[in-house]
Specification:
Length: about 375
Amino acid sequence: MSLNVFWFLPTHGDGRYLGSAEGARQVDYSYLQQVAQAAERQGFGGVLLPTGRSCEDSWLVAASLIPVTQRLKFLVALRPGVISPTIAARQAATLDRLSNGRALFNLVTGGDPEELAAEGLFLSHEERYEASAEFTHVWRRLLEGETVDFAGKHIQVKDAKLLYSPVQQPRPPLYFGGSSEAAQNLAAEQVDLYLTWGETPEQVKEKLAEVRAKAAAQNREVRFGIRLHVIVRETTEEAWQEAERLISHLDDKTIADAQAALARFDSVGQQRMAALHGGKKENLEISPNLWAGIGLVRGGAGTALVGDGPTVAERIQEYADLGIDTFILSGYPHLEEAYRVGELLFPHLNLVQQPTPLHAVNPAGEVIANRYVPRKVSQS
């Protein structure tokens, strides 16, 4: 199976160490452009843009990067409850047209009650998924060309329509991740691709089976994706050394403070991530080459695949064998790690989007004593 592999655009910050200002990197438009162009050059099919009050707006960032990229797709966040589904559908169609069919959408219900309250959303966990289901129902129908009348518990629209359709037909794909029962029900009913965070293969297998069964009960099929960090080096030993270096500035108080802040989230997925490491720096390899260190201080996806290129490719294949065809990867710092992943991991994967240098001046290789030595590219 050919794999779709995406990268991550760090609109909320980047750096060389977790939980430390040392080595932190200022993120501005120039840097985001560099990361996006590096991802495109190395053969990533698209980039995920995060959402939240600590991030730059994902829609505006994606729109700004359209003219400086050629084929890169942009996975941006839909936020039910804080925007009308009609306006969101109009924005989605516009972004898809302006990018010539490079827009993808990620439904994000939110999991931080404090942040949601600041945005004017005071629904409970279950109510948020009710509202998300209604939002998605209207949004999908509008983008598929229907005129929509809808009167739900949370959303009401009358004679809603789009005058200008998206490029992708019947509409741009909809991605979504959530571990609760309500989230899985929503995915089974309305979503094109269900995303999970990087739990162990056994846990992921169980979760995918649940969503697959729920979708089958709706006479639907759902594709699957996974969100993972990667630490890939020329040798597995070097990769594990890099993992340790990444958390070398973390002390017990920094970890405890981060875990206390994340504990207020009512996200089941976040609770499952926290359970993988228990707030301790010891015993972080929770499955072969799967490391839970990032989740010590970062919310969301908190695990990384660690190893040399062939080893990480083997672990990715284990997830692919479960039915996952889309991998959304990231690494710190994101500019340099985009190149490392492209150079060390991609030769061992069967990619949908093959890396092709843009406007290459010279073939890849080295000059030794005025003689050209071509670079050898290993084959998977």
